[in-house]
């Protein structure tokens, strides 16, 4: 049955907190619960792998864990197969997914996570690629991956960094809601969960709970829009 253990963050940064501070308790609980000491960081969503890995390592190592970068291994697939937990960071979603496909890692990660052999933590772009597809990312398509289909740990789509349009905003361009609505008009569209800054999803087998310091908004076909709050159980989305 479904054995996925995952934490999907809207972002690594949240106003009023240092990097990953708002998610520290959830990340530590997830790793400790699974007796994990070493975390494999995937920096493929940004260009400077060393610098990006260093930033994450400085934070998470101080919590009592040990972080290493996937880019430092000669055989990425072997490293994934030997890892107990991975953290895929944010940046450009198209570049991230393209690189994962280039190393043939998409299906390997999917299988190991769904079998309960690999704990998954994702942030921003790392959360996008954990979903059904990357159709609802906010990023520019700076490179074209072989497919928009992603790892598929959850059967719906996510829009990280979701923000409602302010009523007094003077900008007349398309809102995030309108962009998501355009996607939902497509025959291949799945429901979209807009994760506000500071929110995250905890996937524990067939349980899906909203965590963090902010809520989320669910967009479904037909124009239905529902707001959820920290602590809400939204496990029904796993049945899509």
Automatic annotation (TrEMBL):
Family named by the database record: Belongs to the peptidase S51 family.
Where in or outside the cell is it found? Cytoplasm
- Identify the domain of life: Eukaryota
Query: Can you name this protein?
Result: dipeptidase E
Instruction: Give the SUPFAM superfamilies listed for this entry.
Output: Class I glutamine amidotransferase-like
Q: Please provide an example of a Pfam family that matches this protein in its UniProt record.
A: Peptidase_S51
Q: Which GO terms describe its biological process?
A: proteolysis
Cross-referenced InterPro entries: Class_I_gatase-like, Peptidase_S51
A molecular function annotated in GO for this UniProt entry is: serine-type peptidase activity
- Provide the alphabetized UniProt keywords: Cytoplasm, Dipeptidase, Hydrolase, Protease, Serine protease
List, alphabetically, the GO terms of the cellular component aspect.
cytoplasm
